[in-house]
Write a structure and sequence with these properties.
There is one protein chain. With 277 residues, the protein is an alpha+beta fold. The protein has four domains: 9-55, no CATH class; 57-118, no CATH class; 160-190; 192-269. It is 35% helix and 18% strand. It has helices at 138-153, 172-190, 204-236, 240-269, and strands at residues 10-15, 20-21, 26-29, 32-36, 40-41, 48-53, 57-61, 75-79, 84-86, 93-100, 108-112. The radius of gyration is 43 Å and the shape is rod-shaped. The termini are far apart. The relative contact order is 0.06.
Length: 277
């Protein structure tokens, strides 16, 4: 069941405590912007009711931001902070259009659009809160964002996605994730470098270089010993077994060197070690 309680041309709203309402001025109370039909004053802990006219009418008012031009045809907005009308887009809810420009007494005439007062409804939000440069309409703001997105997609800083060497070419994020996955796989194959038996444990290249240096030193010592043993063997004529033992050591060192070279080649192939210049 329902019944008519009014013609929709005025609304009764609550005046909060410690508030002065002047007859003939506009106020925003209980979310309703309208023209006060009478004056009301409330003290601490007191509230009162006042009627605000919300009908679409033409009004004369000096309740304006005088710094604004208020030319005929300008859109009028309500600034809840200053409790005055302004022509600055995004300053507050749209509430009318100037019909007679501001005169020398800072008075304007404007058509007040009342309860049907704002395309900037609660669903849309306050246009003034937009982070875009365009703040006077949703369409302009969306077009600004789209233009920025298009420019970013074509930006030379990002480059052309189709030229990526990754399998994923649809987005930078997908390509980066693909590369990260490949790096993670390599990291698993390499193992935990902290468990290396070498002195160098910061990276695989340093550890391999350390091992290679040790092997090179060992080979040099084996080669020197081999020459000395061979010379002693020739002089002793009968110590051939010594030469044979020395040769076995040399063969073992050379075999290990071949295995190390295989490891280095694999690291270069995987991109974990720089190729030879």
């Amino acid at each position: 069941m329902a019944r008519k309680v009014g013609d929709g041309k005025s609304v009764r709203v609550t005046v909060p405590e410690n508030t002065v309402i002047e007859q003939g001025k506009f106020y925003l109370l209980d979310g309703v912007l309208g023209w006060a039909v009478r004056g009301v004053t409330t003290g601490a802990g007191e509230t009162a009711l006042v009627v605000l006219v919300t009908e679409t009418l033409e009004y004369e008012t000096s309740q304006i931001t005088t710094a604004n031009a208020f030319a005929a045809g300008d859109k009028v907005y309500w600034n809840a902070g200053t409790k005055k009308f302004t022509t600055v887009p995004g300053s507050g809810q749209f509430c009318g259009v100037v019909t007679t420009a501001k005169d020398e007494n800072d008075v304007i005439w404007f058509v007040f659009v009342g309860m049907a007062n704002s395309p900037e409804s609660d669903v849309v939000g306050e246009l003034g809160d937009l982070d875009t440069t365009a703040k006077d309409s949703i369409v302009a703001a969306i077009n600004e964002v789209k233009a920025a997105a298009d420019a970013a997609e074509e930006s030379t800083a990002i480059g052309t996605l189709a030229e990526l060497t990754t399998t994923a070419k649809g987005s930078v994020v997908a390509a980066v994730n693909e590369v990260k996955g490949a790096v993670d796989d390599v990291s698993e194959d390499v193992g935990d470098i902290a468990t290396l038996a070498t002195t160098a444990k910061d990276d695989v290249v340093a550890a391999v270089n350390e091992v290679k240096g040790d092997v090179d030193d060992a080979l040099a010592r084996v080669a020197a010993n081999h020459v000395a043993v061979a010379q002693a063997d020739a002089a002793a004529q009968g110590a051939g077994y010594v030469q044979a033992d020395a040769q076995s050591v040399a063969d073992l060192a050379n075999a290990n060197k071949d295995k190390l070279n295989d490891v280095i080649a694999a690291l270069k192939t995987a991109g974990l070690m720089a190729a030879d210049a």
